[in-house]
Please model this.
Amino acid sequence: MVEHRAGKRRGFSALKREGLQWGILLLGFALGPSKQAWSQSYEEQLKLPLASGKILWARVRFPLDSETKKLRSTKPAVMVFGGFQNAARVIDEVEHLELGREVILASFDYPFNHDRRFRFPQSLFLYPEVVGMLRDAIEGMGVLAELLTQDQRVEPGIIGLGASLGAPLMTIAASRSPRVSQVVLVHGFGNVPDVLQLQLERGLRKTFGGWDLPARVSSRVLASAAWYWSGLPEPEDEASHFRPEQSVLWIEAENDSFIPKAASKSLRESIQRSSARTEFKRTAGDHVQPGSFQLMREIGSTVGQWLRSVRGSG
Model:
């Protein structure tokens, strides 16, 4: 079942703060504002059936020409994923960047219906659901790419953009999907246990009253066990299987306080070992965060130039 809605849209870790909205905002800055702002768009809700029988619902927003109020031509489709933020509300932010005239945007909320803030020890009991959420999200990205490809309004070759947490998830999904042609990974990471440990340690330090050693040891044990028992694929293994027909843009932060340098390096080097056409960029400063508009413009400009180049060259 597909729902159409026309009209303007209203405007357990530190990783969630930048989340999915930054991926969309970066893409908005990348393509830049149009000369004539779009005044209307419509959305469809796309049903994504998973192998388990679960159903995810994706939002797919189509831009309309400001004069004819119709989709003027086929457009590139961009799947955008980041942290645990609500994709439905975040997509609406694109209106302020006037991105609606440029691309078809697609995303879905991660299937997790609990408090996303990490609380010790309560959050530990949600571990099975977190693992299930990640598995379903990866599968859902592949299903979404497949269904978008079947839509005659979509240009051939789906673009996958993963920012922060979305980067390793998009890495896995894109490496497995023959439909994803371009992959943009912004401030992403491999070596997941190290990243998880860093985020857990920050939360546990408060629990242990500022004591570093128990926080460090506990976070290491929890992070290693959580990743081992999850059975999730290693992003590095998946990245090494990027195909010759795929193009990958990797953007990392020079002084990323959210992601250990070794974790960023681990995924970057795996991408370099793949057969994909790759390009690597670095931004000055920290991980992209709310309010870092200058950094977002810088990254956006890089992403926009790269997308136009690789899609123009076919």
